[in-house]
Amino acid sequence: MENNRKYFVTHIIVPNLPDEGYDQVFYYSATAESYHQGNYYWGKGNNTFNQEFINDLMRKEKIFRLVSDSYPMELKENETLWVDYKGDLFLADMRDPNKNQRELEYQELLKRKVVERTYGKSIANIILPNISKETIIYK
Question: If DSSP codes are grouped into helix, strand and coil, which group holds residue 81?
Fold first, then answer.
């Protein structure tokens, strides 16, 4: 039996950004009926999660609300979400992130992850000098 329900993306599970290329992004969604009832699905699954569960994940910054002109954003059967190394979010074909690709709006949490990753890498290779407790005074 084919599932003909329309799913709408509501929240994004915070992804690990790829070093290059694209990585698939997991999400929570709702149907037209379930959204108004405060029930959500992981991806296009059948198990429902309530609004309290979603709010708790948001407080812990495990997920964030999708920023989109049309919220919640409809997701066609052959589409999924992709993220690149710059933290840009795309809607594209389920199997090929370059096919029918459409860049989505600026997602602040993803851009923050790019800054954290860049900053973390920039200080990781710093070699600190050995500091001695001795003080030498020259005349």
Answer: strand
